[in-house]
Design goal:
single chain, 864 residues, alpha+beta, Ribosomal Protein S5, domain 2, 4 domains, 22% strand
Length: 864
């Protein structure tokens, strides 16, 4: 084929929007049915094993394509400067590469770059260098095509087999400032592309890089005589065929019709100064580029996304959740023919979830958020960005994720939002409003291998994951700001519903008391009129604003002027106790900003050292969270390495690059026996000590409790006290807040602090089965409704009691089975939903059984 014919073929494939069109173009050129024109991807006959073992979902596979484009942009900026990407003079990390290559900072700078610091103008300019365009079919018509183009380094035609079409080669393994490592993640998208897995590739090497690669004689090597041309190929899947009674696996091949003697077939190429690979507004393939790469995925699976890519629940918001801290922005273009309301915007920039939320343009976050926390597990340092959304705002930014683990801005796995419902977390009331992003970029390679799968879309189930989850449980459960938010929302709800729930609770009280079995299972308590504050010693006023040491309005500083134990002078040693097998929590006062340890520019650093005692020199897991002037430092003292009576001298050090001397605080800790239940302490004996911890009987300092009054429905060592019961109707805001539908029967939320729990039961009194029974019955409809409510509450209490009894074995089973979504609360929802149609008939008919019925049934059994 001549140059213009090959270019025309490339453009015809580029503008095709279905597999049928692609096959027709290739068939007309004589390639589709010609087996000699196709070459195995990776030159591996068993390449389906690699392709088929990639990401589990289409959006995760698509992310890999975007990450490859980001890598290409970073490599391009490095190579045009004549820097060997694998050399010591190359950037040491992705964020360092942003600082040096895009922000113009010195090579020896310690600063890290992030697009969060860029102006919107600069974000837009750079986003235009990596684009994603959606073309072709709209929902209900079929699957669309997705095209990703970048103005990166590009690849020459001869390099295609070793880059785009290779597998398991170490192309990027020794480059520190790119994401790709395993040379296989980009193939994961193929299995989500239509029946034939068609993927178009067009690329041209940056001429400046080609010029630098010439040898001393200024002549290109013979093998590289097409380096200034655009290469073009298309990947397809050949499905299994039966031959001689055997069935083989699918294989992936790419178009390589050029034969050159004994060498492997090569891809087509053509000369062209530029090529229209970029979109403008809703017009694809109109903006010219002199180099770069284009990947087009035909009939890509987008069933899980909203109809319009830029609208709520669309592809853009999904990608931002999976690329929460993306290194470079991407411009997303909706190029399908939407009209009317859905055509309000043709393009928007993908800047990552953390940047999007940090700007908070839509006023989506609660005041004071995002908050952050730093923690160390097995010497691996991580940071957590905690986002608390206003009611019903979170679902625009995530689906089922509760905690996202990211490396270099890309999600590598997530824990679902049911995490916040766990009994060790007790943030079920905020579960729909919370999202946490964990930055694992600084993890060692070995830890990454232990925590993440190579597909970079899910977590491994191992000991490291377990320890990280335990640390996160503690951070979230004891986060001062989250506890205040939870109790504020709870108080607002109770204030409006307190009186209407009393009759139901009185009747339930009598049911439990009159049943010998239930009386043994549950402790019946009195309901408080108002829940107590989450932290009685919080140094905040009613608006959540902290206070200074002198009692004035708290004004955080970028460089703290003090960091010392709570209610102690700097230099004064803290003397306290810690219960064995519980975490030791130490409270500090500071004027540091909330993100002091997590910010990108000159962050604070923290260390904890045991300088005397059994754990001297040990590496301890610990976390630090600053919230409005209070820093909570939590330390895990391994119970298998300390005994009751041991004494430890712990040094807590805080410093940053602006300090002449660090802040150093010493704590003398004595290990005491674990107090199994707070009920064992006499009423009134618990007081707060100067450190912000507590003292029990005999003045023994403890960790793990806050000394608050017991909330309604709280658990004790003997059972569950009376819960709060709330009726929910269709027009009630709680219907939407708790994801009710017609079949929902009962949902339960847990509140409380460590060592105690309180439960709120939400009963759907507009349940479709209840409404049917009320419509058809001749009895009092109020009685039917009350039966439904009582039955659901008793079922919920039964499941709570069962979960409480088998808590440890249940958690171990869930981890082993990877059943992360199933909690006792989701089980209550699922069980009561299933029983909804049967509850009232069962109560009516079983309750109507008489002695005569029993005798009659017994006689029938004897006769048979």
């Amino acid at each position: 084929m001549k140059n213009e014919e090959i270019k025309a073929l490339a453009l015809a494939l580029l503008h095709a929007n279905s597999e049928t069109e692609v096959i027709a173009v290739l068939a007309a050129a004589g390639y589709w049915d010609n087996p000699t024109a196709w070459r195995l991807c990776g030159d591996l006959d068993g390449n389906f094993a690699t392709v088929g073992n990639q990401q589990a979902r289409p959006e995760g596979a698509l992310v890999e394509k975007i990450v490859n484009s980001v890598d290409a942009r970073l490599l391009n900026e490095c190579l045009v400067r004549g820097i060997d990407p694998e050399s010591e003079s190359a950037p040491r990390s992705i964020r360092h590469a942003i600082a040096v290559l895009f922000d113009g900072r010195p090579q020896d700078s310690n600063d890290e770059g992030t697009i969060a610091d860029w102006s919107q103008r600069k974000q837009l300019e750079e986003a235009r260098q990596i684009t994603l365009a959606i073309t072709g079919n709209k929902p209900r018509q079929g699957m669309p095509c997705i095209t990703i183009a970048d103005k990166g380094e590009g690849q020459s035609p001869s390099r295609f087999p070793d880059t785009f079409l290779s597998m398991h080669k170490s192309n990027k393994l020794r480059i520190k400032f790119v994401q790709g490592k395993f040379n296989m993640g980009g193939t994961g998208a193929l299995k989500f592309c239509g029946r034939n897995s068609l993927q178009l590739i067009i690329s041209r090497r940056n001429p400046k890089i080609v010029e630098q690669s010439k040898d001393k004689t200024n002549q290109l090597a013979a093998a590289n005589n097409r380096d200034d041309e655009w290469g073009v190929t298309i990947v397809r899947r050949e499905r299994p065929t039966e031959a001689a009674g055997q069935v083989r696996n699918s294989v992936f091949k790419y178009l390589a019709p050029i034969h050159s003697g004994e060498a492997m077939n090569e891809v087509l190429s053509f000369k062209s100064a530029t090529l229209p690979i970029f979109p403008e507004d809703n017009r694809p393939y109109v903006r010219e580029a002199a180099h770069g790469s284009l990947i087009k995925l035909f009939e890509y699976d987008t069933k899980g996304f909203g109809s319009q890519a830029l609208m709520k629940g669309g592809l853009l918001s999904r990608l931002e959740a999976l690329l929460p801290q993306i290194a470079l922005p991407v411009r997303v273009h909706e190029c399908r023919d939407y009209r009317g309301e859905e055509a309000r915007s043709f393009a928007n920039s993908l800047v990552g979830l953390t940047v999007r939320l940090g700007e908070n343009r839509g006023d989506n976050l609660e005041d004071g958020y995002p908050s952050s926390s730093s923690f160390v597990v097995r010497q691996e340092k991580m940071t957590a960005q905690i986002y608390a959304f206003k009611n019903n705002k979170a679902e625009s930014y995530r689906t089922n994720e509760g905690i996202i683990f990211a490396i270099n801005g890309q999600s590598h796995g997530a824990i679902p939002k049911t995490f916040f419902e766990r009994s060790k977390v007790k943030m079920g009331r905020l579960a729909k409003s919370l999202l946490i992003v964990i930055d694992c970029t600084n993890m060692s390679v070995g830890a990454r291998e232990d925590l993440f799968m190579n597909s970079r879309d899910r977590l491994s189930n191992g000991e490291l994951r377990k320890q990280i989850e335990e640390e996160l449980e503690h951070i979230v459960c004891h986060h001062t700001g989250l506890r205040e938010l939870r109790e504020r929302r709870r108080s607002e709800e109770i204030a409006s519903r307190l009186e209407e729930s009393k009759p139901l609770e009185s009747i339930l009280d009598s049911i439990l008391k009159t049943s010998p079995t239930l009386s043994r299972l549950f402790i019946l308590g009195q309901r408080l009129n108002r829940p107590e504050r989450a932290d009685s010693e919080s140094q905040t006023d009613g608006g959540g604003q902290g206070a200074t040491e002198g009692g004035g309005l708290f004004e955080p500083k970028p460089d703290p002027t003090y960091f010392h134990f709570f209610k102690k002078k700097y230099g004064e040693r803290l003397v306290r106790s810690a219960e064995i097998d519980r975490r030791c929590r130490i409270k500090f006062q500071t004027d540091a900003q909330n993100d002091y340890f997590e910010r990108g520019h000159m962050p604070g650093r923290y260390e904890i050292d045991v300088i005397d005692g059994p754990l001297e020199g040990a590496d301890l897991s610990h976390s630090v969270t600053i919230h409005n002037g209070i820093a909570n430092w939590s330390v895990n003292l391994p119970d298998d390495q300390v005994d009751v009576g041991d004494q430890l001298l712990i040094q807590c050090t805080v410093t940053d690059d602006t300090m002449l001397e660090p802040f150093v605080n010493l704590a003398h800790i004595t290990i005491v026996p674990r107090e199994e239940s707070s009920t064992s302490t006499k009423k009134g004996a618990r007081t707060s000590n100067a450190s912000g911890g507590e003292t029990g009987a005999g003045g023994t300092g403890t960790s793990g409790r806050d000394g608050n009054s017991r909330a309604p429905g709280s658990t004790t060592s003997g059972g569950i006290t009376l819960p709060q019961i709330t009726e929910v109707k269709r027009n009630d805001p709680l219907w939407v807040a708790n994801d009710f539908d017609d079949a929902t029967a009962c949902k339960v939320i847990e509140d409380g602090d460590e060592g105690q729990s309180s439960y709120t039961f939400y009963i759907n009194v507009d349940n479709v089965y209840l409404k049917t029974e009320m419509k058809e019955t001749d009895a009092d409809v109020a009685i039917e409704k009350t039966k439904f409510i009582w039955a659901n509450v008793l079922i919920g209490l039964a499941l709570l009691h069962d979960a409480k009894t088998h808590a440890s074995s249940e958690r171990a089973s869930n981890i082993e089975d990877n059943d992360e979504n199933e909690t006792v609360f989701s089980r209550i929802d699922r069980t009561t939903r299933a029983l909804g149609p049967f509850l009232i008939p069962m109560i009516d008919h079983l309750g109507a059984i008489t002695e005569d019925d029993v005798v009659h049934l017994a006689q029938r059994g004897d006769d048979e």
